[in-house]
Amino acid sequence: MSDVTEAPEGTSPDVEAGRVVDLPQGDLAYRMSHAPANLLPGELRAHPDPYQYVVVAVVLAVITAIEIAVSYMEGDIPDAVIVVLLLVMMAVKFFLVASWFMHLRTDRPVFRRLFIMGAIAAPLLYLVVLATLHGVLAGS
Amino acid sequence: MATVEQSHGELEAGAAGELVPGAGDHTLVQPDETHTGVANAKLGMWLFLASDCLFFGAFIATFLLYRDRAGQTGPTPSDVFNIPFTSVTSFVLLMSSLTMVLALAAIQRGDHRRFRVWVMATALFGATFIGGQIFEFTEFTRKGLNIDTNLFGSSFYVLTGLHGAHVTVGIIWLLSLWGLSMQNRLTQGDAERVEVAGLYWHFVDVVWIVIFTVIYLLPK
Fold it and tell me: What is the ipTM of this complex?
């Protein structure tokens, strides 16, 4: 019996090449290296594979650990430096989750634009409100 | 006339929703059949999340405005915050985002057993976070900080309480997906439903990323 079959569309590279690889389906390494190529509605590219998700999670965990360490340096380094470092790390974590876990980097741009609209509009709007009210409340 | 009929056809496809019941299974309506070219449920969720940014932004701004108001009596943030404990619960919530995407990856490749494991793990991580929040609120109350103690207490409890309510809704949503999967009513073709739930869950996580840094870690 031949192991070469007609390659269906949207299958893994090995199948597309005309070979059906007979590997155990439960094998984690096999699954990681053969991410599903069939796209969900709204996707431009396939989602990351599980290995990439784990790498992103490790990066997030490391950044969180650094954040906490930096927060304990109050008094050792200027507060302004701590604030800048913490806000930058917060932004990086936000970006990583939104782009990798929420798939903004692989989905159609309309989703990204919607989210950026909200994520940018909210701080801008409330910075104006904060600046206004802080002045009003400080003067009262 | 042909254009009108074509439009009607599109409307019917759109009105049918994202999922069309088939012969004992669900079939995804292709995004090209919607007016926007993207799946309606996903677009709707992103619109909701964009509006929720403004919702949480309002409460974070209120907290920042009222936290250091002069003349407040009762405990201050430095009196009550337990950074090591909150760091652990934050880490748990962060890792729940990993298990959520692993659940989505599993359902996309039709691995229902792993999907159930990961989605249940996500719900349990979420429940652990909520348990931590309840413990934290109890401790704060023991230290004399109630919702009506001062402006810091009011803005803190409202902000973190609303976030906790979002997490609780997410847990219920995940458990319902797990229940559907256990009854074999969630197929590989329903991956988009899991992705929409995942978007909500990740949003709850990114909101906590902001709250944790701005409320707990920034110097007072």
Answer: 0.83
